[in-house]
Design a protein that fits this description.
about 100 residues, alpha+beta, YaeB-like fold, 5 strands, about 25% helix, about 30% strand, globular
Amino acid sequence: MEYKIVFHPKAESELEQLYDDIAGRVAGDRLEFHCWYPRPCLGLSTFPQRGTGRVEIMPGLRIVGYRRAASIAFAVEGERVLILGIFYAGRNITPELLEDRL
């Protein structure tokens, strides 16, 4: 079964901000960064129950790391994976940070 990937508007905004903040520091072309970063989110469509469940933060929340550079917070709802946030450099993910995203 293939799950549909849906980005929360705040997660899209965070991804754009990461692109702006990091792309200038990534070696090579900005296009390389643009192609590199969303890929782990899209990979959740085939196996979304990966990562670590963090129900103490929010019911249904899962977090998966990517290349030790980012954490992707998401929830599986039926046949879709909702990307709740993309956080860079070990940012502490709290209930307040994810408030109103489910």
